[in-house]
Design goal:
About 65% of the residues lie in helices and about 0% in strands. By secondary structure, the chain is mainly α. Strands 1-2 form a two-stranded antiparallel ribbon. Helix 3 (about 60-85) runs parallel beside helix 7, helix 5 crosses helix 11 (about 265-280) and helix 11 crosses helix 12. The relative contact order is 0.12.
Length: about 325
Amino acid sequence: MTTTTTKAQPQKAQPQAAEPAGVPSASEVAALIAEAPEPRPTLIKTFGAMMAREFRVLRRNAVGTFTRAVMQPLLFVFVFAYVFPKIGGGFMLGGAGTAGAGAAAGGSVNFATILVPGLMASMLLMQGIMAVTFPLVMEFSWQRTIEDRALAPVPIRVLAFQKITAGAVQSFIGALIVFPIVLLVHAPGQAPHVDVTNWALFAFILVFSSLLTASLGLLLGTVMDPRKMQMLFAVILLPATMLGCVYYPWAALSHIRWLQIAVLINPMVYMSEGLRAVLTPSLPHMPMWAVLVALVGGTVVFGYLGTRTFTKRVLN
């Protein structure tokens, strides 16, 4: 019985496909990855990137933001500083009831002068709260888009401070938009008498008023039930505006002493009175030390409480 053996034929190696010119090989890619510097995001760079995103969104919604900032003060000024004097119903402080008689009375101040600081304070409050509270409600909704922000390589309290800063910027811009409106829209002979006595103090009050309202917006956005956000206007914004010394100086409430004391809980009073002191010094106003203590202290308190509640909401 014979056995036949067959030798296995050696298999020919398959020719490798030639790599296109200019394309790095796998070993070169691995070497590049190994030699790449380790990314080290800094606190300042990350904060700057988050603020750049906020400005990009603000630029995209510039038309809506501008319209929201302009409409309310424009209508107020148009009615009270243009329509009322035209129909003989202008308001005067320290003079007669009508515009004509009030203009003749010495030492009287027209209503447009009273409105300048009050409407700026009103816009600071509205813009500061709305710029922070409403985006927070959407980010804390069932989609939880806030979790994308929480992945940033910074502590959560830095994210809360970024929210406050972004809201303060929008509030500051809104106040600057209102300023020329209340100066230019008025009936003939009813121009407001504005005299900025201290520009540095004016800027200080604007900055801390913006930070205070944005901090308050962060606190409200983290403690309020999203399903009851419509109560924000009825319970907070409307009473704060009507009792915030927007349409009258705080000193004018001396005839209603209990109300003059009660409104001191309203942060808008200090914003209105601070702006009144630097823009219209001819009007009676609150002592400046009380205004500065309230603005700085309120910013610290609301900022601390808002940061705590924001951190708890994000972690939970």
